[in-house]
Amino acid sequence: MESPTPPSKKQKEPLHRHLLFWIILLCILAFIKLSQTENENKKTASNNLPVQVVLAKVATSNVPVYLTAIGNVAPTYSVTVHTQVNGTLLNVFYKEGQLVKQGDLLAQIDPRPFEAQLMQYQGQLQRDKALLVNARIDLKRYQTLWKQNSVAQQTLATQISLVHQYQGAVKTDKGLIQATKVNLIYAHITSPISGRVGLRLVDPGNIVQTTDTNGLLVINTLNPITVIFTLPEDNIPAVAKLVYSQHVLPVDCYDRNQEIKLATGYLLTIDNQVDPTTGTVKLRAQFANQDNRLFPSQFVNVKLLINTLMNATILPTAAIQYSAAGPFVFALKDDLTVTMKPVKIGVTNGENTTISTGIQPNELVITEGADKLIEGSKVNVAQSSQSLLKPEVKSKIDAQQSWWRVLL
Fold first, then answer.
1. Cα(377)–Cα(21) distance, integer angstroms
2. If you classify domain 81-107+191-217 with CATH, what class do you get?
3. Disulfide engineering: 377 pairs with which of 144, 180, 330, 373, CB 3.0-4.6 Å?
């Protein structure tokens, strides 16, 4: 009998290759599973570690309610002084930037042409008065002669008209004299208001005319001074109700960066119509400005106080978090874990925000580290916030820290 033929070398090679492939594949799958398990363990261990947080205590306070706006400083009165007569500007009696009072002499225009004109009109008046006296004498004589039928009625009527003519001439002369005297007064330019003088616009020696558009100088009243600002028309009913009921509404002015308070005044008035292009209404506030910190055309930020919330619940704005369900805060529990509490926020004043529902005064909320928290997370309270904790909770933390020091 023939012995069976042993498998050739070429038949054994595919079996070995398949076995090696499956061994390598199993090793790769085992490595991937081990890596996933290790990452999950690390993640679980990381989630179980306490999160370092900073606390703040919910408090109660009287919170002012402000309406904020931007505005521009405007002088209470602003006058561009023009000449009311034509002539040569002889003298200027003010210094640039000087404070002047109403009635102070500012400049003088050459008065000599008006003085000569006044003399001329006075001479005309004297002549016309003499003619009027003579005409009245003749009229009296003609009236007597007419009664005696010694003169025609036409002659008497002519004399009466001549008297009326001279009377009109006398009135005209008096009017010309009065106008010239007024021009002489206008030649001495005085301040119409009290305020601060700006830069000089015309130098002495120039011919000034009433048609000049720039004027001689500008005077602005700076004490007191006003600020004009705008508010959306939706805020107007609340403001108007207070204004028309004679309430005094305080107004604060801040610089461009809202860091420095420049002045405190009160709301003076509100405009009588809404600007249809912007949907806003102009308001004017007045400030004493004794320290001259407000300057005309200066840009300022305005805060109008319209209400004060008494004993309102407040907490730092940084403690408020937001989700799809709305705002919430992380409140600290006695076991050093946190819980999420939905809140209803009110007005914001500086770094604090009022809360109408959802949290109670004296509760502790998380202001720093909240981005790493979830419901029930354990926390480690920062040293700076431990003074806010209850005594029993603080004692527990101290005991834990002592135990770790002993172990170390």
1. 47
2. mainly beta
3. 373
User: H or E element: which one contains 13?
Assistant: helix 9-48
Q: Residue 28: its pLDDT value, please?
A: 82
Alpha helices for 49-152 (secondary structure H): 112-147
Peptide bond into 224 cis (omega under 30): yes
Q: How far is CA 170 from CA 45, 142, 250, 296, 371, in A?
A: 114, 22, 61, 51, 96
SS3 label, residue 363 = coil
pLDDT tens digits, 121-172:
999 999 999 999 999 999 999 899 988 888 888 988 999 999 999 999 999 9
Please state the domain extents for the chain. 51-63+310-398, 66-76+220-309, 81-107+191-217, 111-186
Distances (CA, A) of 378 to 53, 94, 211, 331, 373: 10, 76, 82, 12, 8
Q: What is the pLDDT of residues 94-120, one digit of tens each?
A: 999 999 999 999 999 999 999 999 999
Q: Which CATH architecture has domain 66-76+220-309?
A: Beta Barrel (2.40)
